[in-house]
């Protein structure tokens, strides 16, 4: 296996991913928010997706993300703070604003988000992706979503 070499413009593969969901969401809406966020994380960081799974009958299934992804709970204010701190620290983040569960029309969703300033966005969840130390430091105080 060849070693991975990074140029000055590339960054190493993320070491940790955590999803933090609004603690007030009911189970179904929380699962939806986590699924939407996780799908986008996989798209943004395809290197996280492992090799295909092959069963004993040689049937192939898509690979899964190779690391555990804790799903934690936070308040509305904490989610907003996490998003701001991620930006300040240069950590990648995937946000899921409330409008994502208020319409089934993606164009309306985009327009609604576009009409709001960053500090006005109300988040249902966020994924934080980056180095182990930085992500753990930022999220260690949060409990698992229950």
Brief sketch in words of this structure:
With 146 residues, the protein is α+β, with helices and mostly antiparallel strands. It has helices at residues 27-44, 76-89, 106-114, 132-139, and strands at 16-22, 53-54, 60-61, 71-74, 92-97, 123-130.
Walk me through this protein's architecture:
With 146 residues, this protein is an alpha+beta fold. The chain has one domain (20-50, 61-139): Bit1, CATH 3.40.1490. It has helices at 27-44, 76-89, 106-114, 132-139, and strands at 16-22, 53-54, 60-61, 71-74, 92-97, 123-130. The strands form two sheets. The protein has a four-stranded mixed β-sheet, with helices on both faces. A two-stranded antiparallel ribbon has the order 2-3. Strand 2 and strand 3 form a beta hairpin. The longest helix has 18 residues, at 27-44. It is globular and about 50 Å long. Mean pLDDT is 90; it is low at 1-11.
Based on the model shown, name its key terms.
alpha+beta; four-stranded mixed sheet; Bit1
Name the CATH architecture: 3-Layer(aba) Sandwich
Question: Which strand order does the major sheet show?
Answer: 4-1-6-5
List SSEs in N-to-C order.
Answer: EHEEEHEHEH
Helix content: 25-40%
CATH topology: Bit1
Parts with pLDDT < 50 across at least 5 consecutive residues: 1-11
Structural class: alpha+beta
The CATH first-level class comes to Alpha Beta
- How far apart the termini lie comes to 41 Å
Number of domains: 1
SS summary, helix count: 4
How would you name the CATH homologous superfamily?
Answer: Bit1
Give the overall form: globular
Number of strands: 6
Strand residue content? 15-25%
Gyration radius (Cα, Å) is 17 Å
Q: How is the biggest beta sheet arranged?
A: 4 strands, mixed
Mean pLDDT: 90
């Amino acid at each position: 296996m060849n070693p991975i070499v990074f140029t000055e413009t590339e960054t190493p593969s993320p070491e940790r991913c955590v999803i933090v969901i609004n603690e007030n969401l009911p189970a179904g809406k929380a699962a939806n928010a986590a699924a939407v966020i996780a799908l986008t994380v996989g798209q943004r960081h395809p290197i996280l997706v492992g090799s295909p799974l092959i069963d004993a009958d040689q049937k192939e299934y898509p690979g899964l993300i190779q690391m555990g992804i804790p799903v934690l709970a936070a308040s509305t204010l904490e989610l907003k703070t996490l998003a701001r701190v991620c930006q300040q620290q240069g950590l990648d983040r995937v946000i899921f604003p409330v409008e994502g569960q208020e319409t089934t029309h993606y164009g309306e969703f985009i327009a609604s988000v576009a009409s709001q300033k960053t500090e006005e966005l109300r988040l249902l969840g966020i994924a934080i992706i980056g180095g182990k130390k930085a992500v753990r430091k930022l999220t260690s105080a949060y409990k698992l979503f229950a």
